[in-house]
Write a structure and sequence with these properties.
Mean pLDDT: 94
CATH architecture of the largest domain: 3-Layer(aba) Sandwich
Strand order of the largest sheet: 1-2-6-5-3-4-7
Distance between the termini: 34 Å
Helix content: 25-40%
Number of helices: 14
């Protein structure tokens, strides 16, 4: 058995396509995953495969499908579809597994392969570890022949099923709402206007013309500036900016101000609590959530739980607490009553529905939460290995923690999907927060920077 994860990170396997994430590795992943996931139920042969529009998707999909079919798996290839769409279809069809080829919000040159179990949820660490152990040995297995070899069905029909699911998740129509939607030239580009427009909203789209290269290029949830500006220019009621695979969303209120994940958790948590629909009166965020979120929710009688960063850990905390709402400041939300995984479009629909049902504009909810001064810096590094043991970094962190002791907090962690170290601090005033982050980030940059 392997003793460490060489390929799987916090969100599947990612890397630069055709080098780190090669066709050879994609084929091995397909074969190993089909072998491991079908062991649980040999009667289930179908594996749903979808992807985002980036250019390398064709290359990796061909290799991945070949690996799956070599182990007797039948592939349902649905083409370009948001990650949560693949998760939804996997669960609804009772498939053995689902696979998404996407690097989410990462640059176009990157790509990734992420697996879902038959329940539409991300695989457990132990299952990913099983797949990991077979990557170097799968070619030694006896392979099926004749009728035992897997087949491929390519059809966009399930995409319509997913679109209908999204619309049915919204308890009210959106007639009269004017929306600006930024699709990040990604997987939501072909669906967003159909879904929101079909519920009565007037929709203007930005960055919804993917060409395989422009995904996440100065657009989407990481770069919502054009969306914010367009909301201000047109007097729209709200703006929505998705990332490349549409599992997250950053919103804008009617004044063109960012309405991020923390504010969405505050809005939905408060709204559901007031209606008596927030099970156990608890909301789960992460250690990166602004301290103001917890303060605002506690004032309303809602407990706030901070989980480690990553939707996997948010989901685990939600299961422990019996929570029905959780998420991250980055705009990734978990609503398990409605979806087995995070879904940007579905989450946005719940926010807009809350506005429609309450009679409050999105901006009216902004004042319910006061943000503490916070600064986050992401530093590209040569390697993340051993970063916490570098003396200069340790000293900078110790100094920052001392300055914020009792009045704020400092969090330094490696990214789970990129070669980056993220430094975040919160405190009583902007100057202290800036000074702490700048010193720690400088130490990281000097010791490990690219």
């Amino acid at each position: 058995m392997a003793t460490e994860r060489k390929h799987f990170g916090t969100d599947g396997v990612r890397g630069v396509a055709n080098t780190d994430l090669s066709p050879t590795l994609a084929m091995a992943l397909g074969a190993a995953a089909a072998h491991v996931l079908r062991e649980k139920d040999q009667a289930k042969r179908e594996i749903v495969v979808g992807r985002d529009p980036r250019l390398s998707g064709d290359l990796l999909e061909a290799a991945l499908i070949a690996g799956i079919c070599s182990q007797g798996g039948n592939v349902l290839s649905v083409g370009v579809l948001p990650t949560p769409g693949v998760a939804y279809l996997t669960k609804e069809r009772g498939a053995a597994a689902g696979v998404v080829i996407s690097a989410s919000h990462n640059p176009m040159a990157d790509n990734g392969i992420k697996f879902f179990g038959s329940d539409g949820k991300k695989l457990a660490d132990a299952t990913e570890m099983q797949i990991e152990t077979h990557l170097d040995t799968w070619q030694e297995w006896a392979r099926p022949t004749g009728a035992g070899v897997g087949s491929v069905t390519r059809t966009p029909k399930p995409v319509a099923e997913y679109a209908l699911h999204l619309q049915q998740s919204c308890p009210v129509r959106l007639d009269g709402m004017k929306l600006v939607i930024d699709g990040a030239n990604g997987a939501a580009s072909f669906l967003a206007a159909q879904v929101f427009g079909g519920l009565g909203a007037t929709v203007e789209t930005l960055s919804c013309e993917p060409d395989g290269v422009n995904i996440n290029d100065n657009c989407g949830s990481l770069h919502p500036e054009a969306m914010l500006a367009r909301v201000r220019e047109t007097g729209a009621d709200a703006g929505l900016a998705f990332d490349g695979d549409a599992d997250r969303v950053i919103l804008s209120d009617e004044r063109g101000r960012v309405f991020d994940g923390d504010r969405v958790l505050c809005l939905l948590g408060s709204f559901l609590h007031e209606r008596g629909e927030l099970t156990n009166d608890v909301v789960v965020g992460t250690i990166m959530s602004n301290m103001g979120l917890g303060v605002a929710l506690e004032k309303r009688g809602v407990r706030f739980i901070a989980a480690p960063v990553g939707d996997r850990y948010v989901a685990e905390a939600m299961a422990r607490e019996g929570a029905i709402l959780g998420g991250e400041k980055s705009g990734h939300f978990l609503l398990p009553r409605l979806s087995p995984t995070g879904d940007g479009m579905l989450s946005a629909l719940q926010v807009l529905a809350a506005c429609a049902q309450s009679g409050r504009k999105l901006g009216d909810w902004a004042g319910d939460m006061t943000e503490y001064p916070q600064k986050l810096v992401s530093i590209p590094v040569r390697t993340k290995d051993g970063w916490a043991d570098v003396p200069t970094i340790k000293a900078a962190i110790a100094d920052g923690e001392a300055r914020l002791s009792g009045v704020g907090r400092l969090n330094v962690r490696p990214s789970g999907t990129e070669r980056r170290i993220r430094v975040m601090a919160e405190g009583p005033d902007v100057d202290t927060v800036d000074a702490v982050v700048d010193r720690v980030a400088g130490a990281v940059r000097d010791a490990l920077g690219e």
